[in-house]
Design goal:
single chain, Multidrug efflux transporter AcrB transmembrane fold, Alpha-Beta Plaits, 10 strands, elongated
Length: 777
């Protein structure tokens, strides 16, 4: 591999004005096509085989059209309306403003007018008529009052502020979520302007109110920090800009591919954020690794072109294998069987692939374009000691010597520290982002809070119970439904149940349960679990089947399913990476300790994230359950990055060991050469990821923090403390590999040993000569 990369590095360096325009053309072409056909990103937190699908089947069979509300492509909208403080919506002035708003909605051009929009006050009156109960002015102590009036769109059941909050569900003429335009979204909000001026609170929630999150500021902060770090690492300004330039081109191309994919696929809104995190961080890291090696080779090679070839042939090989671990980890998310994770993983892998491509193909051309100006102007007092100089004494060498003197002590300190940080992970709770996760001041968050105030927090995640009575004898159906309702009503965490609605065919019934707590609360998840557990007994007794769906049930199902996938996924990724690292290091123990060290850093990352985001430590964010897909995404990304640092740091240690140094001195020498690059790469990663905490999206915040923490723990404690200590303690055994395995493994030559004889060969004048020159290697 190193030979082929060497050939390409020299060719790209010399033919820079061909390579660079090709990349720019590709960026413009993909960007233009992607922007022209792109559709909005959208979330679909569903997956096959969930328990909630049974309810959907019953709805489709006996209540046609009812399951449409759970269609990820459906365009939904709910207006939550509140009276001024201390007033009621039924007060004459507020009632008039509400009626005018309803009339305006009924003439709104994007509203489906096949069914008129109903005033919630009038709808509430109609709810009580079949049982001769007036939900507005009737006797609230009647036994049937709660069951009948609980489905009213006006909060008549409130004991503290009744008749002050109402909801209006609207059906739009827009067919799919991806068809919603910015103008549609703005118009759907502005239609309530007159009602707001009249003193009413009106907030829009539902899919029509959702906007895709974009980065921007976070990426700029990450880039700014990266520039400073690389300027210090290289001791020059121009060299600091080159990795950023490759990152922007690689990321721009990857995002264009993702936009291209939205035309056919339902791609989650978090995907471009994830791609930005991965693309920026990896592109900058990989480019910096190669540029650092190029700087060293310039002092030994006969020409800059040869130096570029050698840098790409050596560091480029490590970059490819480091990138492969990230790609494998992300692409493997598709085996979890969750649609939104599959797309996030695949397009995250696309971003990682472009990071590798720009590093090994575009970067040598840019090095050729900048020529002798690449490491100018030099910065005084910065990067005074070059870690590639064997005679220099760097901080990395000093720290490595400390580890070498007391390897057992440093190993114990690192393991104990990570173990203490990991302890809070035992209480980790998972959920999916709902209205409560949106930033304060947004329509989605305000609607959630107003609905909670009027109807209770559980109203934001009602449980829809669909009962199939097909196999229940006619004379037992009423008793079966009654027993089911009584059981559900008596479960801890259930607030109340609505009245049952029979299907037109008489073979099913439908009612709604309102929990005490919100959709992501553990009490609500336990309630769903208990409610489903009774089905087997009731089926044996009556022949009745039922399913529970709704936001709460779906969230609980997805969280439980994802939690169950973590161990299989981790096993798959770790196994694949282990095999890859055996190829790279030609060792058994080094890849094994690399994987075990990752488990330590991952546990510490989960613990720290639980403390900050779930427990609200330091008050940095509002406490929330961790988003359900965070653990798997975190494992995939940080595992890939961890193996990056393992490859960058330990390959140099192996190179020194192979060249005759003892295990201890090989560790110190490899640390001396690689510590600055790994430190700089980790600081850049932490900056890029950590900057996403500035976004309003709670998913971006938690993911950014978790990734930054994961990189910190893995790079600075595991890779730079625990692993070097282990290498010293294991001695020569660290590099042991069975002879039979060594014989059958392909020699991929990551260290570039095959290039040793090529360092002083004349520079070829053309690709043909270059091919002849290296054909026998």
């Amino acid at each position: 591999m190193s030979v082929y990369l060497y050939r390409w590095g020299r060719f790209a360096f010399r033919r820079k004005w061909i390579v660079i325009p090709v990349w720019l053309t590709l960026l413009i072409l993909l960007g233009g096509v992607g922007g022209a056909i792109a559709k909005p990103f959208q979330d679909s937190f569903t997956m096959p085989g969930l328990p909630s699908e049974r309810a959907t089947e019953i709805l489709d069979e006996h209540f046609p059209g009812m399951s449409a509300a759970f269609d990820p492509n459906a365009v939904t909208g709910t207006y939550v309306i509140g009276a001024p403080e201390g007033e009621k919506l039924t007060d004459p002035r507020n009632a008039a403003a509400l009626a005018a708003f309803v009339q305006k909605l009924d003439s709104f051009d994007i509203v489906d007018h096949t069914k008129p929009v109903v005033n919630p006050i009038e709808a509430t009156k109609e709810v009580g008529k079949p049982a001769d109960i007036n939900c507005l002015t009737g006797d609230r102590s009647k036994p049937d009052f709660t069951a009948i009036c609980s489905s009213a769109p006006l909060n008549v059941l409130s004991t503290t502020d009744a008749d002050s909050v109402a909801t209006i569900d609207v059906k739009y003429t827009i067919e799919k979520f991806s068809d919603i335009t910015v103008a549609d979204r703005e118009a759907a909000t502005e239609v309530a302007a007159d009602a707001r001026e009249a003193g009413l609170e009106v907030y829009l929630t539902g899919s029509i109110a959702q906007e895709a999150e974009t980065g921007g500021a976070a990426e700029l902060i990450g880039i700014g920090v990266a520039l400073v770090v690389m300027a210090i690492a290289f001791g020059a300004l121009v060299a600091a800009f080159v990795p950023v330039l490759t990152a922007l081109i690689g990321l721009g191309t990857a995002i264009s591919v993702i936009m291209f994919g939205t035309h056919w696929l339902v791609i989650p809104t978090f995907t471009p954020i994830l791609a930005s995190m991965v693309g920026l961080a990896l592109s900058i890291d990989y480019a910096m690794f190669i540029v650092s090696r190029y700087k060293h080779e310039l002092s030994e090679a006969d020409s800059p072109e040869e130096a570029a070839g050698l840098a790409v042939g050596t560091a480029g090989s490590a970059v490819i294998f480091a990138g492969l671990t990230v790609i494998i980890a992300l692409a493997a998310l598709s085996v979890v069987g969750v649609g939104f994770l599959t797309y996030m993983g695949i397009f995250g892998a696309v971003s990682a692939a472009f990071a590798v491509l720009v590093a090994i193909t575009l970067l040598p051309a840019l090095m050729g374009a900048f020529g002798k100006y690449l490491f100018k102007p030099k910065l005084p007092l910065v990067a005074k000691h070059d870690p590639e100089d064997d005679n220099a004494v760097t901080n990395g060498m000093r720290f490595a010597k400390l580890i070498g003197r007391a390897p057992a002590l440093t190993l114990a300190a690192g393991v104990v520290l990570l173990g203490l940080l990991a302890a809070p992970a035992a209480g980790m709770e998972l959920g999916l982002p709902g209205g409560e996760s949106f930033p304060k001041g947004t329509s989605m968050r305000d609607a959630y809070e107003l609905q909670t105030k009027g109807f209770g927090e559980g109203s934001n995640g009602a449980l829809m119970v669909a009962v199939d009575l097909t196999n229940v004898p006619q004379d037992q159906r009423e008793a079966a439904v009654t027993e089911l309702r009584e059981r559900l009503a008596n479960y801890p965490g259930m607030d109340y149940l609505t009245a049952s609605m029979p299907s037109e065919d008489g073979q099913a019934e439908l009612f709604t349960g309102i929990p005490d707590a919100g959709p992501n609360d553990q009490v609500t998840k336990d309630l769903v679990k208990e409610a489903r557990a009774a089905e087997a007994e009731l089926q044996d007794k009556y022949g009745m089947e039922y399913g529970i769906t709704g936001t709460t049930a779906i969230y609980a199902d997805v969280s439980a399913a994802l939690l169950s996938k973590i161990v299989p996924y981790l096993s798959l990724v770790a196994g694949a990476a282990f095999l890859l690292l055996v190829l790279v290091f030609r060792s058994i123990l080094v890849p094994l300790t690399a994987a075990l060290g990752f488990l330590l850093s991952m546990a510490a990352t989960f613990g720290a994230t639980v403390l900050i985001f779930q427990e609200g430590l330091f008050g940095l964010v509002e406490p929330h359950p961790l988003v359900s897909f965070l653990p798997i995404m975190l494992i995939g990304l940080v595992f890939g990055l961890a193996m990056d640092y393992q490859v960058f740091l330990v390959t140099r240690m192996r190179e020194e060991f192979v060249h005759g140094k003892s295990s201890k001195h090989a560790m110190i020498s490899g640390y001396h050469h690689g510590a600055r690059v790994v430190t700089s790469a980790a600081v850049i990663m932490i900056s890029v990821f950590g900057a996403f905490m500035l976004q309003d999206n709670v998913v971006a915040k938690s993911m950014g923090f978790a990734l930054a923490a994961g990189v910190f723990f893995d790079a600075f404690i595991v890779r730079m403390v625990v692993i070097p200590a282990l290498l010293v303690l294991m001695g020569a055994h660290a590099w042991w590999i069975p002879k039979w395995l060594d014989r059958i493994l392909p020699d991929i030559d990551v260290e570039g040993s095959k290039l040793a004889d090529m360092r002083h060969k004349p520079v070829a004048e053309s690709p043909v000569e270059l091919e002849k020159e290296t054909a026998g290697v």
